[in-house]
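Quick sanity check, 2-oxoglutarate (2OG) and Fe(II)-dependent oxygenase superfamily protein:
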Amino acid sequence: MAGNGLPSLGRVKLADLVPSEGLPSDSYKISVSTLSQSLAQYSAAIIQFSGSDGALLRSGLDSARFYFHQRASYPPADMNYTNDSREWCKTSGYYADTQLWQEAYDYRPGLTLMDPSNIMELPPAGLPDIFSLLGKAARDILDAISFYLNLRSSPFTEILDNVPLRNREVSSSVLSVFCHARPSFHGAQHHSLSTQDDSQLVMYPDHEHQVDKSLITLVKSDKPGLHVRDFNGHWVLVDEDLGPQEAVVYPGLALYQATAGYVNPALHRTESNNLQGNLYGRCSLAFKLMPKSMASLSCSEMRAAGHGVEAQFQLPVPVDDFMQRSHPTDQLFNRQNIQSFNFPTAQDGSIKPMMRRRKNNNNSRCRPLPPSKRLRLEAQRVLKERVQDIADKKGIKLKFCSLKDCESHMHALDSPCGSTRMDIGWPPEVPFVHPHDLPNKAKIGFLEAYEPGWTATHDMELSLTESGQASQSNCT
């Protein structure tokens, strides 16, 4: 890892991460590689926005400073932050955490906050535009990570909010405006900002680090102070030299769950020790791309792409349950996470993606999949991507036969599945059953029918499969 790792936090232009039709451009592949290596090595990366978008973010920070500066010096009791996980998708408006000397304003489309006197609170300016900008950026980044993992395009669409939101829908994703260590915030008198003799950070001890439950988090701050724990367990100040058009991105626990642990969440903490004498404190914008509360986090896309999935990720987890559950983070950095990702040039001159993983004999999901299981996953993928698409376009509802019954259907003149087979181009000698239940030889015929040339690109794997079948027949 150290030999080909990044010397510092990776910087990627957002414009280079926007997907387009057809073959990926070289700039897209290089950007995906840089983003992925930075997430693997530092658990964070720096995203560069356009000039106009950078100006919008800076104006949002300016508005945040004045918003918090004009607030009362000590918040009412009903505005103090309470760690109620049941309210994870309902937070909106102003709240404060007197222990951490932190104030926040949550903007969540679909919710209009009214204070106790039924007067609408005026939020910091520009939040709808900033929400839209960072939301689009987070989705593009998520798609880039999916491309890196060899998942099909936009695999997480089903667990994300509609774009735009439907009538009466409330956004699960949230844009939070934070202010740390505002001098006029009197609750800070109970908070210790002392440092050790060697000036090391002690505001948040190691056991008090934070981890977001988001898929992706984007943060833009006006002063440095955000520390993220890297692959080696060191705390890295990730926003020290942010440019005017740059923001920090890091993954959360929901992405960790949805990718079967292949993408580690970022452990982070915020330092406010260097703000003495500052009039406004440290302000930041943080957008969290969250899954819908009524969805489930499933690793089916990872399995379909051929990744091994450990037992703890096998069953889908309802999002609402996941958000209310505690998640110990002490072992996260002992797990395999995404590693260096290169695009080596093939013999034919094309560039093909290749995933490189560290060897870990104690981690079963890093072992190669058995050829028969790989065939099954490939067949399920083709059913989902090719066959179902054909059926949907022709208005056909797929109703598979049992393997035993279909052996007679294939040769009958009035076959109950004959017309369906013909309409969707089902291979003649393959029974019309779910590809999961097909014998390996029939799976190969099925794959070759819908992806001509598939056999040639998997010849080594097929030889292993056939040799395994032959050995089984000899044993019987």
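Posting the structure with no commentary besides this: Residues 187-207, 339-366, 464-476 have pLDDT under 50 and may be disordered.
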